[in-house]
Amino acid sequence: xxxxxxxxxxxxxxxxxxxxxxxxxxxxxxxxxxxxxxxxxxxxxxxxxxxxxxxxxxxxxxxxxxxxxxxxxxxxxxxxxxxxxxxxxxxxxxxx
Length: 96
What we know:
This protein has 96 residues and is mainly alpha-helical. It has a domain at 37-96. It contains three helices and no strands. It has helices at 5-30, 35-64, 67-94. Helix 2 (35-64) runs antiparallel to helix 3.
């Protein structure tokens, strides 16, 4: 069963909100990281935030997409989303 455009956008927005909350939690835990690992942590956090911003931009594009461009933007967004999900997972695993 295909989800509607609005359902798909709502699902993506919800996932982004969850990731934002987790990033905020990771930022709080960053204060507990040892000094020698803090620079790497900060560097990866900046990269993660950049990927999140790219995901937010794609979500905005999806919301503004016409019916003729919707499917293409959906595919592009899924690629961005997968990259963000992978980066986020790697970040969380590395800095548990």
